[in-house]
Amino acid sequence: MDRLQSLIRGEIGGTLFSFETIDSTNTVAMELGEKGASHGTVVIADAQTKGRGRLGRVWVSPPGVNIYMSVLFRTPLDVRHGGLLTIMAGVACCLALRDAARLPVLLKWPNDLIVRDKKLGGILTESKTASGKILFAVIGIGIDVNMRIEGSPPEIREIATSLLHETSQRHSRTTITAAVLNELDRWCGVLTSGNHSRIIEEWKSNSSMLGKAVSVAEGRQVLQGVAEDITEEGMLLLRLPSGRVKAVSTGDVTVLG
Ligand code: BTN
Question: Ligand 1 centre and the CA of 245: distance in Å?
Answer without folding.
Answer: 30
